[in-house]
Amino acid sequence: MRILKGKTTIKAVFWSQVCMSLLLASYFAVPMPIKRSIFPFMAVLAIGFFLSGMILVVLTMRSKTKGKHRLFLLLTGGSSMGFLASILLHNLVYGLFIFLFGSGFWESIGMGDEPFFFIVYNSV
Known about the structure:
By secondary structure, this protein is mainly α. The chain has helices at 7-29, 35-62, 67-101, 105-108, 113-123. Helix 1 (7-29) runs antiparallel to helix 2 (35-62) and helix 2 (35-62) crosses helix 3.
């Protein structure tokens, strides 16, 4: 069995990320009546997307790639790592605010949680 090395490995990880991102985007964008039954598959896919982003960043840092190509690969890996981190942070803070201020907190302040998280994520 041939072990992938160098640029071949980076290409394989990158294209696997493209496929995973398309599957994840279709899960969120396409209305499906069976979303609950495929949620575990999508959760595993999101974790795989996160891990492949970490692998891409590590491989890019170890490679001799320079310039815009390196920056592109680092941003691609970093953004896929940020995807799962953002979901977890969103749910953690959402649940924490409900725990601290009660179940009707988000409705009582006159806005949902989405504008709050949009401001928080963009200010970081």
